Amino acid sequence: MLVSVEFADAGTKTGSHQVLVVGGCSDATAPGDIGISLEEAKALLNALQWEYVAAQAAEITEKALRCERCGARLRIKDWSRRRVHTLFGRVFVQAPCLISCCCRGHLKKGIF
Question: Residue ranges per domain, the chain?
């Protein structure tokens, strides 16, 4: 079974993304082994969490690319890896460090 998610409006993450391939029967599958295993369920939840956090980070980034005062598009100075703590553990996302426009006159730190 191929599990995928589809984001309708998530900035750069909009679209369909394959999350995980789960399950499958083998010759050793017993009648009591029907259904998703605990390990597969944990892997699926973890993969969904990564996708969801990445989509949320893309939305936050998209909104932050405009100056709050004048609406000018901000430039990206560089990208850094950020750690986000969630209910299911830590997730790492790429986040830009933005340069503010001239109405602000200083470097804006990371978005989250």
Answer: 2-99
**Distance from C-alpha of 14 to C-alpha of 63, rounded to nearest angstrom:** 14
Task: Summarize pLDDT for 43-65 with one digit per residue, the tens.
Answer: 888 888 888 888 888 888 888 88
Q: Dig out the tokens for 9 from the structure.
A: 């409006």
Q: Count the Cβ atoms, other than its own, within 10 Å of residue 13.
A: 19
For 52-70, b where at least 16 C-beta lie within 10 A, e where not — what string? bbbbbbbbebeebbebeee
* Dist. CA 3–CA 7, nearest whole Å: 14
Q: pTM higher than 0.90, yes or no?
A: no
What pLDDT shows up at residue 112?
Answer: 54
